[in-house]
Specification:
By secondary structure, the chain is of the alpha/beta class. The protein has a single domain, classed as Rossmann fold, CATH 3.40.50.360. It has helices at about 15-30, 45, 75-80, 95-105, 120-125, 130-149; strands at about 5-10, 30-35, 50-55, 90-95, 120. It has a 5-stranded parallel beta sheet, with helices on both faces. The protein is globular and about 35 Å long.
Length: about 150
Amino acid sequence: MVHTLVIYAPEKSRSAQAAQRIGTLLKKRKYSVVIKEAASTSMPDLAAADIILFGSSVGTSQPVRTFLHPDYGDLARSLKGVNLAGRVVGLFAEEDGVFAALEKALGDTGVALGNENYLTLAEAAGPDPAALNRWLGPMIKQLEILRER
């Protein structure tokens, strides 16, 4: 069975809605799915997952704009030096700055992120499930390749 972890921040946001939609779609594929808010996600959650999907809205806009939502603070610090190689990672976010902040948090983890691993929140939370399927398909293929090794 494929174990999937969908992480999002903040609690009440488009990223939370997208996480629920992604989780529903994965459950239809008979995957084990855990959906967690970033602030309550821990290393054992990550260790148990084959596919980890990180989602976020913009952190703050006033007085200084930050792209990594504060709810990711502890998790981002915990990721330093953690090896996630052998897992597939995808990102769903509001804009390029948020993608860059998530990439930075994952910088030391050994994950490979190709263009197919990114999805905008507009697509993830939108009405078209085909966009989610187009995003998830290549990551599922990545997992199959990793498992063959």
